[in-house]
Design a protein that fits this description.
single chain; five-stranded antiparallel β-sheet; 5 strands
Length: 121
């Protein structure tokens, strides 16, 4: 099943989110409020399964004409692309997403811990 959402922040476009869901996970969402509810919460509620992990890749792209129009930016403007594959707690992949996010309205922040130093051999 495929969902496409235009997400806004403070009344202005923020991202275009394209989501592909496993059919048994996606069909029940058709009867849900996808405008005001978090899709991950809805997946857990409707499927009865907990989400487990996600593999996330962030990279830069330029806005294609349709995306630029929806995000109200010039064609070719810089965007963050966020690709995410989310799995249930048992490891089954159920949600593949591609987000195109306005680079002028988004920042990526991470806290990284350094692990133990391994002796060189």
């Amino acid at each position: 099943m495929y969902l496409e959402r235009l997400r806004s922040l403070d009344g202005r476009p923020l991202s275009v989110d394209s989501t592909w869901l496993a059919p048994d996970i996606g069909r029940p969402l058709l009867d849900c409020d996808l405008t005001h509810r978090d899709v991950f919460d809805l997946i857990e509620e409707t499927s009865g399964h907990r989400l487990g992990s996600a593999e996330v890749t962030v990279h830069a792209v330029t806005a294609e004409p349709d995306t630029a129009r929806l995000l109200e930016i010039p064609e070719g403007a810089a965007l963050f692309a966020i690709d995410r594959l989310t799995c249930l707690a048992d490891g089954r992949p159920v949600d593949a997403e591609t987000l195109r996010v306005r680079a002028d309205r988004f920042a990526l922040q991470a806290l990284v811990h350094r692990g133990p130093v391994r002796p060189r051999t």
